[in-house]
């Protein structure tokens, strides 16, 4: 995955390994065999059984608490623990908010279970409350709870899944607005950057930490923006957008953000930049906000940020000097994002790097140190994360290459072999021993099962274009999202364009667009890769590598040859 983990210090042998591995994959008969319709249907049904095994055990042993403990058939009220690594300031009387049910609603509808979806919606409508003395992480509560409620409300009022007349009166939207109003106090800072932690009942507590992450400030715009469009109350979108703009203004001269910062002073605390924990969804939401809301401002931010991260990978934001050379499970969202951008070749290369690690261990460990060719000594766990399945789904949607169905089947088999227990699905504490941990995370139902199901059956997507939030909650891409924006904000760029055949903006993924290709017809729109950096000279002559740009198709850095021309040469 040269576009993600390329290191100037790679030896000749290490530089050739990804290409040799790719060649072996292409030649392997087991991976290029036909994936027939009967096999696809069988895998779809297997994923459905996985979801219901997890869901029904949660409903039996944990509901209405937050998450299931599948080994002991018990529960955890974990909303106040998410992101709270030291488990500080835990509430005494908090009894759960049915977190896993909220997370499961859209998955139920994706799998066609309208009756259980309706039952869950009505229970939450009548019983959910946020007037609770609980300190929660703003980012986690936003993507899981607010995102789940907003998405479920849209699906509940959609003509294809509309609930029985009189049974639903927008209660989930009312709950979402209540939660959104409780969020607003977090943004009351000198910088407009939100506190990472608030008490749902009492707001920001005295002596609350002012430290937060880039993701925590920059991954709120989809959910809060959608809430504003649904309610007509602009405060949510305004607060999220102000924070995002402030965060973007804090980037370095290299267009790189750091990982952690202070919301009061607006100063960076941790200068490491990358696409993993603490930063990942920042990049994701810039691109998805552009597709969903259409503002060129989001595209301009994303384009600069994407080029920078392609160039520097994981580095010090101030100098560009490499900090880590690693693969982490959270980074596995990146190939899916590259698909949305239209960089299919680069996405395929990135994805195969992650598949190599998955295939080696049976699951994807939390952190793998590439420079040491070894697992991180303490981060050897796999908590049922969805990112690799997510990228596999996106790549299959873009290419229809059945190899990705083979990968999906491998994921399903691993999950059933290593993580399935009688009471649900358990996280893995150590991938070297496959020792289990008594925790079934809500995102297993919201994302992992959903993306695997959509990989084998995408009928949910046939009549509607959706953007999936970082927690896997679908929000439709519709013309009415743009009605309150100036006409100039309607996207006309290559990633989201309008034509006679596509009157509404559609994403590169849905159009199956590859880099540097034309939309066809009479539009004449060139769909060019976002990672493309042109060579310094139009005749491609050069003296040093720095005079060469980035290839539009592969997103690899072009090199200056001995003959003095820029091209895709091996650096020996």
UniProtKB/TrEMBL annotation:
Positions with a binding annotation for Ca(2+): 470
Residues in the signal sequence: 1-34
Active site, UniProt feature: 140, 280, 366, 387
A single cellular component GO annotation: membrane
GO biological process: carbohydrate metabolic process; endoplasmic reticulum mannose trimming
Subcellular location: Endoplasmic reticulum
The name this protein goes by in its record: alpha-1,2-Mannosidase
Keywords, in A-Z order: Calcium, Endoplasmic reticulum, Glycoprotein, Glycosidase, Hydrolase, Metal-binding, Signal
Lineage: Eukaryota, Viridiplantae, Streptophyta, Embryophyta, Tracheophyta
Domain of life: Eukaryota
Main location class: endoplasmic reticulum
Cofactor(s) needed for function: Ca(2+)
A GO term, aspect molecular function: mannosyl-oligosaccharide 1,2-alpha-mannosidase activity
Enzyme Commission number: 3.2.1.-
Coiled-coil regions, chain positions: none
Top-level EC class as recorded in UniProt: hydrolase
Similarity annotation: Belongs to the glycosyl hydrolase 47 family.
């Amino acid at each position: 995955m040269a576009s993600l983990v390329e290191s100037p210090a790679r030896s000749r042998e290490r530089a050739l390994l990804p290409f040799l591995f790719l060649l072996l994959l292409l030649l392997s008969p087991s991976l290029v065999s036909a994936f027939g319709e009967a096999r696809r249907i069988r895998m779809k049904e297997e994923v459905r059984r996985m979801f219901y095994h997890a869901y029904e055990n949660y409903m039996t042993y944990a509901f209405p608490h937050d998450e299931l403990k599948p080994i002991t058939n018990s529960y955890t009220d974990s909303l106040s623990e998410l992101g709270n690594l030291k488990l500080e300031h835990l509430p005494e009387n908090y009894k759960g908010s049915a977190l896993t049910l909220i997370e499961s609603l859209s998955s139920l509808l994706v799998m066609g279970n309208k009756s259980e979806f309706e039952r869950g919606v009505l229970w939450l409508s009548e019983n959910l409350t946020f007037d609770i003395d609980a300190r929660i992480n703003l980012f986690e509560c936003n993507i899981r709870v607010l995102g789940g409620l907003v998405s479920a409300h849209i699906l509940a009022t959609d003509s294809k899944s509309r609930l029985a007349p009189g049974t639903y009166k927008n209660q989930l939207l009312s709950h979402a607005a209540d939660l959104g109003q409780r969020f607003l106090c977090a943004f009351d800072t000198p910088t407009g950057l939100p506190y990472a932690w608030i008490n749902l009942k009492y707001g920001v507590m005295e002596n609350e930490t002012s430290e937060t992450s880039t993701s925590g400030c920059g991954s709120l715009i989809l959910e809060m923006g959608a809430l504003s469009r649904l309610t007509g109350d602009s405060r949510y979108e305004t607060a999220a957008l102000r924070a995002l703009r402030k965060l973007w203004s804090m980037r370095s001269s290299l267009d790189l953000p750091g990982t952690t910062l202070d919301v009061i002073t607006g100063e960076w605390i941790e200068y490491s930049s990358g696409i993993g924990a603490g930063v990942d969804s920042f990049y994701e939401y810039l691109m998805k906000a552009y597709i969903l809301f259409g503002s060129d401002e989001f595209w301009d931010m994303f384009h600069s940020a994407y080029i920078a991260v392609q160039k520097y990978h994981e580095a010090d934001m101030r100098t560009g000097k490499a900090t880590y050379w690693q693969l982490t499970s959270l980074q596995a969202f990146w190939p899916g994002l590259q698909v949305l951008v239209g960089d299919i070749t680069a996405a395929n290369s990135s994805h195969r790097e992650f598949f190599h690690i998955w295939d080696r261990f049976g699951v994807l460990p939390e952190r793998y140190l590439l420079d040491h060719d070894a697992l991180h000594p303490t981060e050897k766990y796999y908590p049922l994360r969805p990112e690799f399945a997510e990228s596999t789904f996106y790549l299959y949607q873009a290419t229809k290459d059945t190899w990705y169905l083979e990968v999906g089947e491998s994921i399903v088999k691993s999950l059933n072999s290593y993580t399935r227990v009688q009471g649900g699905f358990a996280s893995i504490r150590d991938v070297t021993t496959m020792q289990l941990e008594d925790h079934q995370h809500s995102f297993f139902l919201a994302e992992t099962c959903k993306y695997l199901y959509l990989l084998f059956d995408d009928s949910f997507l046939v009549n509607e274009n959706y953007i999936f939030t970082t927690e896997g909650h679908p929000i439709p891409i519709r013309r009415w999202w743009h009605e309150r924006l100036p006409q100039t904000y309607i996207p006309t760029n290559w990633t989201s364009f309008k034509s006679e055949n596509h009157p509404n903006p559609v994403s590169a993924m849905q159009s199956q667009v590859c880099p540097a290709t034309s939309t066809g017809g009479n539009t004449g729109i060139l769909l060019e890769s976002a990672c493309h950096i042109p060579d310094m000279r139009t005749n491609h002559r050069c003296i040093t590598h720095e005079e060469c740009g980035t290839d539009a198709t592969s997103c690899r850095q072009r090199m200056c040859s001995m003959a003095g021309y820029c091209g895709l040469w091996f650096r020996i």
